[in-house]
Write a structure and sequence with these properties.
The chain is α+β, with helices and mostly antiparallel strands. 53% of the residues lie in helices and 12% in strands. It has an 8-stranded antiparallel sheet with strand order 4-3-2-1-5-6-7-8, covered by helices on one side. Strand 7 (294-300) and strand 8 form a beta hairpin. Helix 4 crosses helix 5 (137-161) and helix 7 (184-214) crosses helix 11 (335-372). The longest helix has 38 residues, at 335-372. The two termini are 26 Å apart. The mean pLDDT is 93.
Length: 373
Amino acid sequence: MNSRKFFFWFHLIIGCSTAVFIFLMSITGVALTYERQIIQSAQRSDYPVIPSENAIRLPLDDIIEIAKPYQGEKTLSISFANEINAPFVIKAGRKTLAYINPFTGDILSEPASETKLLLAKLRAFHRWLTLDGKFSDTGRWVNGIANVCFLLLTLSGLYLWLPAKFKKRAFKQKLTLSKSHQSSHARDYQWHNTFGFYMAPLLIVITATAMFFSFKWPSETLKSLVSLEQQTQPKAQILSAAEQPLQLSMQALFSKVASTSINWQSISFSIAKQPQHLQKFYVDMGNGGEPQKKSALIINTINANVIELQTFEDNSTYRKVRSYIRFLHTGEVFGVVGQTIAGLASLLACLLVYTGIAMSWRRWQKSRKSVEY
């Protein structure tokens, strides 16, 4: 058996064995293409109504007082978007505790809760094959193995795509789509080869990054290959009793941050249990999925001087690569254009599954007829 025949049967057997799971991951990936924008749009429709034309949001110091009763073992944080009627969000770690009306300080129900729940269940099915939104180790492994197979299919498909003879005409036939086809088999063969070739680079990125979500070994391997060294950060010290009256309001500190990062989209900060001489603000100037547009400002709480600006480039190599991997999978690292391209790749992956199964089915039927005769 020559190498081409080996890769053909390898491609066919692996493809047929994992077709269902690859299709499910791909079609749910299409549905999740604009997940972030869908949630943001649904949230805006649930934001509180602006009470008047000249309405002013409550100062951050008032919001901190509202948040203090939620204080527990984990440090509280407050985040908010750069929209006048966007609620303040109180969190403890990753857990959201409350949404605060920015004008009245009242507790709000969670914006877009039904939309978030629906997309969370869809995301869980995409990652773990569960319908209830809960984590499933078995589903994670099944999808992980299917992802590895999809990557091998893409690589072997590229090899099989190469013409038997490297001639200009042969490459042109492989790279262009015909307007008419002699049969449905010829159509499926051309679609499978042509779309498969153009989508291969994207599918390699999507499947390779997906393995970081399914298995631990890719992250461990990455840690062994790149630097984990993180830039040393200035440590905050507790203010003395004499210094505490000199501490500026959180609203004044925020004004400094907003003037420094004019195009900010969202800001978050932690609430210290005791007054400190430094306050760290996390600033996102992107869509939430662009790690290169995130930074942190460390401000002196007495004079509002910027002590340090930490950009994405100041992170360890591992953290930077890991951040890119997370958002390369969804294409968000390149904004809406990247999301659209990733969604298109997922959609065409569904076409590749269909054409591959259709050709395999016809091949099987043909082999049965030849045996009968």
